[in-house]
Amino acid sequence: MLRRRWYHFLPLGLAIAMILAPHPSLIVIFVNYYYRVHDAPLRGFAHIFIVYTLTFLAFSSLLVVLARDPGPVTGDKAHGEEAAGGRNNEEGESFLEALLAPPDGEEAHGLGKWCKKCAAPKPERAHHCGTCGRCVLRMDHHCMWLGHKCIGHRTHASFVHFLFCVTALAAYVAILCSTVVSWAFMHPLAIDETTPIHAISLALYGVVIGMVIGSFLGYHVYLITTNQTTLESLSPFWLLRHIPPLPDNADSRKLSNPPLEHELSFEQRMLVRDAHRYIRLYDVGWRKNWAQVFGWSKPWGWVYRLAIGGGCTGDGRNFPRNPRSDEMLSRLAAGLVSADKNR
User: What is the C-alpha to C-alpha distance for residues 223 and 294, in angstroms, rounded to an integer?
Assistant: First the structure.
């Protein structure tokens, strides 16, 4: 189990500082531009309300990510702590190892398998985080920027909510300050010399933050739409754990069942990579995919989603499968055996 030291929270402190850094300059712009120059305090208060609402929503979802367990597996804490006391942390599984096929004889990652590191059952789509020293339900990734915590089944919606609020805040500040800069260039004598400097700095800052965080947000929108996690999207070879038993072939070298990544030839690796582009095991349509993350069952559930994002729906252990996935996996298995004959 990861024992977080003070330096583990430095990236989190930097992230919080980057969210709060523009606010003093924003106050300067609101006072000098809307109150002193245009004598329009209501417009200024309206902009302040929008900016601080987005800031509040970003911090509300951030608190959920920091305070909530990302996805506990039954008996995970007890088993994980006992196991951590008796072995070196280096024996935990790294992020890269989680992307690769398991070693020979290892069954810890398979559907409904047993995690040897936690000495506990591992549900479907759960992964073992070597940094945290535990399994996480529907683990997406381990985030060093948010207190070195995993993003999993119970925090993924709040994480995406946080990305959206930060991106919206950055875009709003960039547009708002760009209008101030444009007006200042058209009326250079009607405004003091410091306000345009604040506006130019914030406009550039908002563009940079919006592009960086917005790109990350767009990637997670794609993941939700196709019902994938970051781990599942980055590694094509995780499909090997789900293909059906390979048909016997006397001319083949008899790959393991299921095949292991190091056994594959270049041609077979390309087959797996090509199959990964169109095989979506859990893609049940974009509406249902989004409902699994941001759906609600109570009448006012949308308010909860709007405020903090919350967790994904369901129990995090069982997921509907794409009805066409079995057929596509069977074709992949046949292709692997066929390519094995030509080696």
Answer: 13
- The beta strands (E) that lie in the chain are given as 113-115, 120-122, 127-129, 134-136, 141-143, 149-151
Nearest to 19 by CA among 209, 149, 211: 209
In angstroms, the CA 260 to CA 29 distance is 60
pLDDT in tens, 227-242: 999 999 998 998 988 8
Look up 143 and say whether it is catalytic.
Answer: yes
Q: Which residue has the tokens 């990861």?
A: 2
What's the pLDDT tens digit per position in 286-318? 999 999 999 888 888 888 899 999 889 988 999
Instruction: Report pLDDT digits (tens) over 104-159.
Output: 444 434 445 788 888 888 898 999 998 888 899 999 999 999 989 999 999 999 99
Quick one: which of 135, 137, 131, 119 has its CA closest to 82? Answer: 119
Across the strands, what pairs with 120? 115
Q: Which of 115, 118, 135, 143 is catalytic?
A: 143
Is the bond preceding residue 259 a cis peptide, omega within 30 degrees? no
